[in-house]
Every structure is written in structure tokens, then in C-alpha cells.
């Protein structure tokens, strides 16, 4: 059977990475349309017709159009990769759903920090107090995860799942804002994610990282 045409609308090193990584895990072929935050491509490139909030990722799968990385990941798993999901009735399903969505609790904090540290341009000034608060909240979300990682390799005892893919983007970005040395389980978990061939292929296809211009962004003085 021929595969439907899949096209991912993406910004390199954004939440779109979750979708690209999953497509690699699934061995599906796909095209990528890349946009850049801050230039006119996102506003004028037709993305508004695909994504209600004009954000990435969005995906076209044949005639189907979807936005929201978590929904796309869940849909692709249900249609192409049940081994990466947990069906209704599976004892791991509640935890699967929790981690799938927890990744957005964390990603929204990363997004606030991206906005303040990376996107604001003079004369707009980043807010030291907003950065301080969001960094503390991000650290708290990591501590909560560290405490629950257990002794298994991935988030769920039953093995690698779409919830790990959702988290992979976060853990790529988090160390730019939080010193993770206090979270050894989380660091080891991140290494296991990065070791997956599909992760590496998806990352290589993103091209060089040009989003962050330094290794670490400390909380500024108030
Ligand atoms: N909850 C959405 C969030 C999508 C989102 O905010 N994407 C960011 C990139 S990671 C974006 O498109 N930002 C552009 C903007 O805010 O204008 C998802 O998970 O897909």
C-alpha cells in the first residue's frame, strides 16, 4: 500500500521536532516546510490555514490537517505505531496520557524563557522577575519528574512511548535555562533518548542549531 503524502510544517528546534522524531521512529517518509519565528514566513506563508494559532508544528497527512504536537503524536501512534502508545484499558494508559500532556506544562515554561531571553529585541526589555519566576517553575517541573522517574529506562515501565518523544524536545531546550546537574536521573534519561537512532536522524535533518546563541542563559539581576 502506498503511504499518504505527509508534510510537516516546522520551525527547526521547535516542538515540531517531536513530530519529526516520531516519523523517523515510524520509518515514514515526509516533507518538511520550514518557517522562521520572527520573520514574515509564519504570518504570510499560509500557516494560518493549517494551524488555528498559526503555530508549528502542523501536519498534512493526505487530506487531513492537524496542529498541536501532542494531538499529532497521539494520532500518528494510533494510526501508524501502536507500539509507542498505550490503548484504552492498558494499565499504563493514565500515566501515558499524564506524561504526554505534562510535556506541555514544561514546554510552556521553556516558551516563556525563549520569549524573554531569545526573541525580545530592543527597545523591548526582558523582565528579570518573569524570567526568575519561570525558571523556578521550570526547575520545579523537572524536580517533580526526577522524583518520579523510577528505575526504568523511559517514562513508562513498559518501555519507550510517545510520551518520551513529547519530552525529548523539552529536554533538549531545558539545559539552556536550568543547570540540570541536580537531576542525575533526568540527565541519564536524556542520554537514552539522544542515543536513539531516530532521534539522531531527526536532529541531523534539522540542520545546525541556530536558535540559542550561548550554552546557558542565567537569570538576570533584578
Ligand atoms: N501546544 C502547541 C504549541 C505550539 C507552539 O507554540 N509552537 C511554537 C514553536 S515551539 C510556535 O509556533 N511559536 C510561534 C509563535 O508563538 O508565534 C503544540 O504543542 O503544538
From TrEMBL:
Keyword Oxidoreductase: yes
Keyword list, A-Z: Oxidoreductase
UniProt xrefs under PROSITE patterns: GST_CTER (PS50405), GST_NTER (PS50404)
Keyword field contains Metal-binding: no
Matches recorded under InterPro entries: Glutathione-S-Trfase_C-like, Glutathione-S-Trfase_C_sf, Glutathione_S-Trfase, Glutathione_S-Trfase_N, GST_C, Thioredoxin-like_sf
UniProt-listed SUPFAM superfamilies: GST C-terminal domain-like, Thioredoxin-like
An example molecular function term from Gene Ontology annotations: oxidoreductase activity
Domain GST C-terminal: 89-216
EC number: 1.8.4.-
Domain GST N-terminal stretches: 3-84
Membrane spanning residue stretches: none
Superkingdom, taxonomy of origin: Bacteria
Similarity field: Belongs to the GST superfamily.
Protein name in UniProt: Disulfide-bond oxidoreductase YfcG
Organism for this UniProt entry: Pelagimonas varians
Amino acid at each position: 500500500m502506498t503511504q499518504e503524502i505527509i508534510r510537516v510544517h516546522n520551525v527547526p528546534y521547535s516542538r515540531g521536532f517531536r513530530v519529526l522524531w516520531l516519523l523517523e521512529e515510524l520509518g515514514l517518509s515526509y516533507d518538511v516546510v520550514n518557517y522562521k519565528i520572527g520573520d514574515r514566513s509564519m504570518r504570510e506563508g499560509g500557516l494560518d490555514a493549517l494551524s488555528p494559532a498559526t503555530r508549528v508544528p502542523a501536519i498534512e497527512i493526505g487530506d487531513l490537517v492537524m496542529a498541536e504536537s501532542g494531538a499529532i503524536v497521539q494520532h500518528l501512534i494510533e494510526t501508524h505505531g501502536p507500539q509507542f502508545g498505550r490503548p484504552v484499558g492498558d494499565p499504563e494508559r493514565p500515566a501515558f496520557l499524564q506524561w504526554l500532556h505534562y510535556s506541555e506544562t514544561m514546554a510552556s515554561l521553556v516558551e516563556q524563557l525563549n520569549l524573554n531571553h531569545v526573541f525580545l529585541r530592543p527597545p523591548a526589555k526582558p523582565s528579570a522577575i518573569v524570567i526568575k519566576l519561570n525558571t523556578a517553575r521550570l526547575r520545579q517541573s523537572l524536580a517533580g519528574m526526577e522524583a518520579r522517574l523510577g528505575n526504568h529506562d523511559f517514562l513508562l515501565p513498559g518501555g519507550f512511548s510517545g510520551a518520551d518523544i513529547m519530552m525529548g524536545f523539552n529536554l533538549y531546550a531545558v539545559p539552556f535555562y536550568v543547570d540540570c546537574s541536580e537531576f542525575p536521573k533526568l540527565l541519564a534519561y536524556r542520554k537514552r533518548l539522544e542515543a536513539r537512532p531516530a532521534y539522531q536522524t531527526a536532529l541531523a535533518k534539522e540542520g545546525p542549531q541556530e536558535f540559542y546563541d550561548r550554552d546557558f542563559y542565567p537569570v538576570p539581576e533584578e
